[in-house]
Amino acid sequence: MYNHILSIILFTPLVGAVLLMLMPKENKDAIRWMGNIFGFLGFAVSLPLIPWFWALKDRVGFQFVEGAPNNWIPSIGSGYVIGIDGISFLLIMLTTLLGAISILSSWNAIQDRVKEYYVWFLVLQTGMLGVFMANDMFLFFVFWEAMLVPMYLLIGIWGGPRKLYAAIKFFLYTLFGSVLMLLGILFLYFHHHTLTGVYTFYLPDLYATAPKIGGHAAIWLFFAFFVGFAIKVPMFPFHTWLPDAHVEAPTAGSVILAGVLLKMGTYGLIRFSLPFFPAVAMTPWVRQFVIVLSLIAIIYGALVSLMQKDMKKLVAYSSVSHLGFCTLGIFALSPLGLSGSVLQQINHGISTGALFLIVGILYERRHTREISEYGGISNVMPVYATITLIMFMSSMGLPLLNGFVGEFTILQGTFMENKVWAAWAVPGVILAAAYLLWLYQRVFFGPVNNPKNEKLLDLSGRELATFIPLVIIAFWIGLYPKPFFQILSTPVNNLVATVRPDYPGLTKPVLAAQPVNPNPEAATPLPEPPKSPATQTSPAGGTPSQTGVTQTHPPVRVVRRPSTSLGQAFSAASGTNSSVGSWALSPEPPSTKNQTQKPVPVNTAKANLAAAPAALGK
Amino acid sequence: MFFLDHIWLIPLFPALGAVCMFFFGRKLSKQAVNGICVGLVVLAFLWACVAVWQYTGYSAASPGKPFEKVLYTWMGTGDGSLGYVMHGGRTAEFRADAGFLLDPLSSIWLLFVTGVGMLIHIYSIGYMGHEGGYYRFFGYMNLFMFSMLTLVLANNYALMFVGWEGVGLCSYLLIGFYFQRHSASTAANKAFIVNRVGDAGFLLGMFTIAWYIGSVQYTKVNLLARSGQFHIGDHWITAACLLLFVGACGKSAQFPLYVWLPDAMEGPTPVSALIHAATMVTAGVYMVARSNALFVLAPNAMKTVAIIGALTAIFAATIALVQNDIKRVLAYSTVSQLGYMFLALGVGAFAAGVFHVFTHAFFKALLFLGAGSVIHAMSGEQEMQHMGALHGKIKTTFGTMLIATLAISGVPGFAGFFSKDAILWETWSREAGAYRYLWYIAFLTALMTAFYMFRLIYLTFFGKPRMNHEVEHHVHESPKTMTVPLVILAICSIGAGFLGMPHSLGGSNRFEKFLEPVFAKEAIVLEEGGKTAQVAAGEQQVEHTDPMEYTLMFASVGAAVVGWFLAQRAYKKADKGYKEPIQEISPRFYKTLFRKWYVDEIYDWVFTGRKKVGPVRLGAMGLGDAMWKFDANVIDGAVNGAGWSTRMSGTLSVLWDKWIIDGLFVNGVAMVTRLASYPVRLVQWGLVQWYALVMVAGLVCFIFYYVVKW
Q1: Cα A571 to Cα A376: distance, rounded to the nearest angstrom
Q2: Predicted confidence (pLDDT) at residue A581 exceeds the cutoff of 80
Q3: N or C: which end of chain B has fewer CB within 10 A?
Q4: Closest C-alpha to B405, from B456, B478, B348
Q5: With a CB-CB cutoff of 8 Å, which residues 415-434 of chain A face chain B?
């Protein structure tokens, strides 16, 4: 279980989908039960990951790595390799949780083609999880594209009046970005071959070679990837598919769309764009360009949101604004900005996911989302009104709820890079209060004027159950975000060190070197690294980089991949270094030993930063 | 030390009450709600008293030594692994603790917030007795107490911001308590959003501090600010202070962000007393006083604070002169008094400002609660035009409100006299030159204050009864739960002033002594650093024996008396259709004042866009409209255009394919072939005999040709 936890999480929904396919479609309730069981099971199997990952949170690089490079389609050098770091861990947990919740929320909403609905939903789950797990660009791209189809069908079959328009727009728009990205991936693939003589899609290998691309090619490649991800995020001005898709999608589809799908874009920026093209990302005009797009998205999204007459569209545009904060944090390119950004992605999944559920509940009862149709709802649905207020407050970033922690961290991270950027982002916080409170006033306050609203039922037990975990997490992140920061600090510091080698206080990055576990026997749980003394407040002053380098690193066992695969033969045939593991760039031929020891530095930024207060008090 | 060590429980008591109301409130009886919510606030007050008492013991050796208690790391990893690059390329840890700090400054706030809060909770039992949503009201009130106490007890700016936004939320919830009234929910939104504007300034100010100084923890910030490594007038510190002051303007209703406070009177009256008079609105004063170590390094920021404070004071006072809603008069009076406090802070008289906060909490809470009692007696009537001659019918209310009015007007012997006189004197004595104008403004404001407050008293309690008979018949004194808090507050409104009796009147000014360590240090530290002590820094060392002080004291008492006299002359015999003196003099000016200088209208035109300027809508809504049209037509238009052009090119391709490729080249060739086949077919028509005949004919021709040739 421990060694294959990722595969289990990844394929549980797919197994559910296959089993559902075997069921007779007449018995709708049985199908609903089955769908919910597998939706919940998908979440349940991801729970053990929490303590297991927690134990490894200080390790740099991908953990729980499964599979080996080139083991899937050796002839082209693609492998089934999955592994996670803190960033993907949080997003995976978000995906499994929101998946279970949205499946639960669809019980009454979906009445026709029930079986297909649950099948496609479960397939979608696997697709999204795969995106967050893949350590192989080919595998990543397969999941990235595969996930489009179920989403397309969810919108196109179970959507609203303009569902086909929305579905096709969503599909084609995303596909357009994907094609550019595919070209980028292929460029990296052939470039890797040019440098090393090896054809591989293995991510850590590409991490090693991609930054070596220089000049115009790098900028073109950056933008090829960027457009693909920016459409998905969506960043201004690629955002117009989002309101349409949201408005037409069924509630659960909207929840997943906002909660998880959009995060694939930001995840891509973090996982691929930054480490592949660090120099481009740090090029002032590129960085400024992306930041300006983010700032426009923040303010523009909020202003457009203010004037919406359709609740779902309002929430959709608020997503544009919130995701603007996420991309702002990413391109602030500092540990704070990045960790805030990931946290905000989680928060957005929680809050906006809940907002779509909220809209869905009214829609299920009244079959309209026009704000003017409502008013005084808190008279008839007090519990619902309370939950809504909590989630609105979370979405607008009220302290002690989740939204604040993310926004605060992003804004502070951005402020430290550039004060003007932060100053332009802050009005988004004010406008968020404006559009949400105004919406709340129009829908919930006042007397019940519309006779159709007089007999609305308050939340049922099932509906309440969909909100409770979200509310709990919203308070958890708001009150005690420390574990999240702890999970994020290692990957984020590592990433910043990769992109900005001159960033003070961080150790050298360890993105390219990855331990690979080929056989389950060897992949027993690695002993937990002893706590470095650096975790205590170190009185040592001095320049940060010095303290960083002088730390001793606990050795991490690196297991060498046995040379048996066809990819090996392929590489051998090409007459060059056959290694695709950690030594891809090594000038020497790889050793034939199956196991070897190699020290991998853990992140020692802690020591440097702990020294800061000492410097302060001088 | 048990109570001091567990000081973090003080905010948690009311939080527990709020949580109880959230989960079980609906099912609880009123007695149970009273028991939980009021009981927990009383517990918090008692705990606070003991904790402050223990604190005086704790800090006996080194006065002013702050007591700090960190519960856990709230923001950040807590082990230094998440940091940022601050000013000068140094690294600093990203961290904000759930930590609590008690020093003289927070002690004062702690005591009066819990004390006044407790009285208002007790009062609410009577006032809200007949209202729906009883548990909801007390839940919100408890949540407010939690937020306010977090704000006051936090040991860093980030946690203060938690309380800061928290009180904003509670204010929103309580202003919108009667949510069925559109005006109430609109006022609630206004309060929250205007406060958010201020909060944005606070956030940026906090980031500036984090960037420039490297921490948001008060003790570290103060230590560094007082270390002498920053020079006076440092630009970044000035920027930080000004940004923090934007936040203070929002929360403490200073110009130009004061607009939400008068509208906030839509909430139940105890809310107005607790939140919008006594406690929450002083949060800005607290924040500036808390950041005094920074502010003294930024003389320009201090000047801004003083000028904004003085302008707000007089501006709000002019509006209060003519308002008819009893709560609205008090609301503008609050804005005006807050202006006084900021004036004091701005001239560096931090202790005087805090003293005014302290006395103001009592008499303003008393005024609001008294107004609530009047409204209660008048069956909900708030317009003073329809009151009159109530003094004999609701004696306790009248007596206590009169005391509060004497206090706020600055009549000697009452609390307001001491604190206001301290501010006026400090304003005069600390800054010379053009700053004396601030004193004249404050003096004029004092006169207006006496006028509008006595106008309120005369219109409400004297003159002829102007209400209808039904209401008159129902006038009754409020229940004990309401009058007892009034009496206690009235006693405080007299007694609190003597804590800060100045030396010139033979007092010892204990209040200032108590606060001295918080504020006085800067002057000393800066001198040690080899720099001239700023005039505005800390508490002054000069003894209060200047003869000028007595002159000014007489002047301010004179102002109060003149204001009283004018009000008496105009309103003592007010009957139906009484005349407003200002209206008599200049109807136009009266209307301008009555419409509050049209500030709300201007904001609606320029900032929110709720009102159109001619045919054009400006402000956020106008911008939103324009953006929305842009989005739907231009951006989405471009996307749909791309889709359309793809489809169009597809259609064209189909046409090309059908007519040119297939039509011209493929079918065309076929057609030509077919056409060409017709003449050929004439020859080749399949009759074998004919073929044979032609063959034979041909053969004959051949043979004939060769035969003839040869």
Answers
A1: 70
A2: no
A3: C
A4: B456
A5: 415-416, 419, 422-423, 426-427, 429-431, 433-434
Q: What is the pLDDT of residues A231-285, one digit of tens each?
A: 998 898 899 899 999 999 999 999 999 999 999 999 999 999 999 999 999 999 9
B618 touches chain A (CB under 8 A): no
Of B156, B246, B393, the residue nearest A408 (C-alpha) = B156
Two structure tokens written together for A388: 């809504």
Structure tokens at A609: 């930063």
* Residue B385 in contact with partner chain A when CB distance is under 8 A: no
Q: Is B84 helix (H, G, I), strand (E, B) or coil?
A: strand
CA–CA distance from B110 to each of A136, B15, B124, B141, B491 (Å)?
Answer: 58, 16, 21, 16, 19
Q: Distances in Å between the alpha carbon of B613 and those of A109, A304, A306, B599, B620?
A: 45, 21, 19, 15, 13
Residue of B nearest to A447 (CA): B180
How many beta carbons lie within 10 A of that of residue B140, not counting itself? 26
Contact A135, A203 (CB under 8 A): yes
Phi-psi category of residue A69: left, alpha or beta, with phi > 0 → left and psi -120 to 50 → alpha:
beta
Q: How many CB atoms lie within 10 A of CB B509?
A: 23
Interchain pair B203, A609: CB under 8 A: no
Rounded to whole angstroms, what are the CA distances from B139 to B22, B37, B143, B239, B607?
7, 7, 6, 38, 34
Residue type present at position A326: C
DSSP B544-583: S--HHHHHHHHHHHHHHHHHHHHHHHHHTT--TTPPPHHH
| Contacts with B666 (C-beta within 8 Å, 6 or more apart), sequence order | none
Give me the pLDDT at residue B521, please. Answer: 56
Within 13 Å, how many C-alpha atoms sit on residue B144's CB side?
A: 33
- Residue B449 — φ and ψ, nearest 5°? -60, -50
Given a contact cutoff of 8 angstroms between Cβ atoms, the answer to whether B526 and B228 are in contact is yes
pTM: 0.86
Q: Could you tell me the CA-to-CA distances from B380 to B326, B329, B404 in Å, in that order?
A: 11, 16, 22
Identify the band that residue B378 occupies on the pLDDT scale cut at 50, 70 and 90.
confident
Tell me whether the omega of the peptide bond preceding residue A237 falls within 30 degrees of 0, making it cis. Answer: yes
Q: Tell whether A363 is within 8 A of chain B (Cβ).
A: no
Type of residue found at B693: L
The terminus-to-terminus CA distance of chain B in angstroms comes to 150
Cα separation, B270 vs B113, whole angstroms: 14
3-class SS letters over B360-416:
HHHHHHHHHHHHHHHHHHCCCCCEHHHCCCCCCCCHHHHHHHHHHHHHHHCCCCCHH
Within the 16-75 window of chain B, which residues sit less than 8 Å (CB to CB) from chain A? Answer: 22, 72-75
The structure tokens 């891809």 sit at: A584
- pLDDT tens readout for residues B488-518: 999 988 888 888 777 777 667 778 778 877 8
pLDDT category at A515 given cuts 50, 70, 90 is very low
CA nearest B623: which of B605, B603, B609?
B609
User: Is residue B382 within 8 Å of B375, Cβ to Cβ?
Assistant: yes
For A168-189, give one letter per residue: b (16+ CB within 10 A) or e: bbbbebbeebbebbbebbebbb
What torsion, rounded to 10 degrees, do the Cα atoms B228, B230, B232, B238 define?
A: -140
- What values do phi and psi take at B217, rounded to 5? -85, 130
- For chain B, positions 137-196, list CB contacts with chain A under 8 A: 158, 161-162, 165-166, 169, 172, 176, 179-180, 182, 185-186, 188-189, 192-193, 196
Distance, in Å, from the CA atom of A66 to the CA atom of A139, rounded to the nearest integer, reads 13
| Tokens, residue A564 | 């048996």
